[in-house]
Amino acid sequence: MNQPDNLGDFFRENKELLKVYVETKSEIFRLQAIRIFSKSMGLLAWMVIAAFIAFLILIFAGMCLGFWLSELTQSYVKGFGLTAIILIALFIFIAVFREKLFVNPIIRSIIIRAREEVKISKSDNDED
Questions:
Q1: pLDDT value, residue 1
Q2: pTM to 2 decimals?
């Protein structure tokens, strides 16, 4: 094999190989981004479904609580009024602590999943 005389000759001789290498690396990066995005969207879809089910549970639990308190107070107005006050207090609690309860755990979960994907893809590349 001929040794190139200088760096310019080396790059000219290996231009096609370098081009293929850059294209392959960009394709690997693109596929990793797609994998991370799709897993994040799957997590988001699960959270939307879970939130909808929690909403339904809250509605039916509120109705049960309203009827039960109405029975105790002998008045639908008082029973459902107390239920409304309890649900408003729950809403205020969730609004005050939304970052600790929802935002930060979701962000942390997405970051952890992204790091796991990067580690997996790096270990896949190391085996080659």
A1: 47
A2: 0.58
